[in-house]
Inverse folding.
């Protein structure tokens, strides 16, 4: 079910013109999620629209988001889908925080 939802979410983001969609497998790196999806929206309105689409797609598949943060500002919206966390960000916010680098850094063991 989780993989199907992940696929539906990324397809919906692509359909709504989300940019630079990246899916990161964090299953071995953290305990709170298996995947992180990061997508760029071109404006506050676009970010909010993408976030609302993710929420609607998840509800259609029987999963009510556990939490949604940042809808008021529309610069960075986080949608918690349990096993999947979705970050919808404006370009300047995404560039500043560089979440991809945070989650793809390999540790020396």
């Amino acid at each position: 079910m989780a993989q199907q939802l992940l696929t539906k979410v990324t397809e919906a983001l692509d359909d709504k013109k989300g940019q630079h969609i990246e899916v990161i497998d964090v299953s071995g790196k953290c305990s709170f999620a298996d995947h992180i999806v990061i997508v760029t929206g071109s404006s506050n309105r676009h970010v909010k629209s993408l976030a609302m689409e993710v929420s609607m797609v998840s509800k259609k598949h029987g999963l009510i988001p556990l939490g949604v943060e940042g809808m008021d500002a529309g610069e960075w919206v986080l949608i918690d889908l349990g096993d999947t966390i979705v970050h919808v960000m404006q370009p300047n916010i995404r560039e500043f925080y560089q979440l991809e680098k945070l989650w793809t850094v390999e540790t020396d063991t």
Notes: Helices lie at 2-15, 44-60, 91-97, 99-104.
